[in-house]
Amino acid sequence: MNDQESVVEYFTQILTLTNQMKNYGEKLKDMMIIDKIMRTLTPRFDHIVITIEQGTNLEGMRVEELQGIPEVQEFRLNERK
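Predicted structure:
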């Protein structure tokens, strides 16, 4: 993810890529995708990533559920500008 990219744009790219990989027979679990997403979010989301890792059962989380959390944060940050 780059600084000019929105959370929605980033997740759309990730989901498009992972769907293509699945179409070619790749076995991808949501946990693996979530882990990669959380590692590649920009540093402005570091505090959100830490909170998610500490307070959420990542094994039961879906990618779509994860998307809502940084989206809300981004909305609040943009609202203050």
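Summary: The chain has a mean pLDDT of 91.
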